[in-house]
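User: My instructor asked us to take a sequence, write out its structure as C-alpha cells, and then describe one feature of it. I'm not sure where to start. Here is the sequence I was given:
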Amino acid sequence: MTNIDPFPTLLIIPTGIGCSVGGYAGDAIPAARLLASASECLITHPNVMNGGSLYWSDTNIQYVEGYSLNLFAAGEVFLKPVRQQKVGLLLDAGLESDLKKRHLQVADGCVASLGLNIGPVITTERPIRINLKKGLSGSSWGDIEESDVLLRAAEKLKKAGATAIAVVTRFPDDSDELETKLYRQGNGVDIIAGLEAVISHFLVKHLLIPCAHAPGLAPLPIDYELDPRISGEEIGYTFLQSVLVGLSRAPDLICKSAMKNKANAFLQVKNLLRNQDLGAVVVPQGALGGEAVLSCIERFIPLIVVSNQGVLNVSSTKMRLDHLSGKKNNSILYAENYVEAAGLITALRHGINIKSLRRPINCLKELIDE
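Assistant: Let's start with the prediction itself. The C-alpha cells for your sequence are:
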C-alpha cells in the first residue's frame, strides 16, 4: 500500500448564523475530527472548535481565526505549524472580581493540568463596553465602544512576548431573554457569537498573531429543556478553556510580503501551508458569500457544499456556481452531511473519480471536430 500525502482541507462554518451543525457550543467538533481524519490536515476556525468547557486537541487540525482564514485563502498569509504558542491573556476591566478570578483559575488550571504556556496577563485600563446587535438576516453581530483600549492592551501583550492572545470581555447578561431561551433549546442563533468574531477579527487585523475570544458571562439558571448542543457552555463558569487549548497550537501567521528578499525564502515556504496547497474547502450551503470561500472559488479549489441549515441563504443556486463559464463546474460538489463530505475528501485525496461513485455512470463521449 502506497503512502498518501495529507490533503489540506479548509472547513468553514460561519459564526452567529445558527447553523444546525456548528451554530452552538462546539457541536461541529465531531465533524471536524472526521474531516481531519479523512484529510490528515484540516484548517478551521474557533467557531468550529470552541466548545465552552469542552475541547479537542488534534495534531491534524490547524486552529485559525476567521480573519486570518480570509487572508490565507486570498494568498496574503501563509500558515506555519508550531509545537506551542505563548498565549497572552487579555481581561476586560469590566469583569467583576469573582468572574475575573474564575478566568484566572482556568488559565492556572490549563498550565497545571494541560501543560499550556500561558502569560503574560493584562487587564484593560477601563471597561471595553460592547453592544450586541442582530442583522436583518437574523445573524448576530455588534460593536466595540472602547476599541482603542482593547488594542492597546493587546499590543502590550505582544510586546511582552505573547505569540497568541486569548481575550475575555464582559458581555451583557440582560440580552434578549427570548433569543437566549430559543438558543439554549436549539432553535435560535447564538446572539453573542457575531460580536466575538468582530473582536478577534479586529485584533488579528492589527497584530497579525492568532487571537480568539471567550465571553465573560454570569451563569444562567438551569434549563431542563436544554439542547445537548449547548451543554458545553453550561458545565463551567467560563468558556475560556477551549480557547486556550485551541490557541496553544494555532499556527503562526506569516505575511507573504515578509518572505520577499530573503535568501532562504524558498526553503521557508516549503515548510508552510499556502492557499495553493488546499485540496478542498467545505462550507454550508447557505453561507457561500464569505471572503475565504470566494477566494477559493476564484482559484477553482474544489468546493464541497454541505446541507447545514442556518439563517443565511447565499446558496450555490443564487450564486450560479453550477454555471460558471457557461457550463457545469466540476469543482463544485454536494454533500447531505459531513459524513458524506468526508467520503468526498477521501475520494479526492486518493484520486478516485467522483463520477465513478455515483449512479448511473454515463458513457464516455468521443470528441468530434467541427
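For the description part of your assignment, you could build on this observation: The longest helix spans residues 97-114. Try explaining in your own words what that tells you about the chain.
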